Amino acid sequence: MTITGRRPRLSIEQLESWLGNVLVPVEPSTEYPRFLRARMVNFRGQGLPSAWVAVAVLGTSVLLAAGAVGFLLRLMLGLFGLLAVLSRRSRTSAVRRRAG
């Protein structure tokens, strides 16, 4: 390595010899294709979905519904507060007109 931390570039011959030493062809075992087939993805329509999928969908829908209800309650509370402020202002202005 040099002072800058970079390695000197390999020549094409050095790279080919290094790759020839490192990349050795290997014959796969007989269990490897079975392993690949076992990990294949099911196509749509094959079998029922997993129970965990149903639990995840149900949990997500419950959380979304709870969030929507919470948002609506906050929105209604804000609107009621705004109405209360507006009605209080109209009352105080009416009282001031009568007193004045």
SS content category: mainly alpha
> Helix tally?
3
Percent strand equals: under 5%
Average pLDDT confidence is 83
**End-to-end Cα distance:** 92 Å
Order of SSEs, N→C? HHH
Name the overall outline: elongated
**Low-confidence stretches at least 5 residues in length (pLDDT < 50)?**
none
The residue fraction in helices comes out at 55-70%
Largest sheet: none
Number of separate strands: 0
Rg over C-alpha atoms, rounded to the nearest angstrom: 36 Å
Polypeptide structure, described:
By secondary structure, this protein is mainly α. It has a domain at 65-100. It has 3 helices and no strands.
Short recap of the structure:
The protein has 100 residues and is mainly alpha-helical.
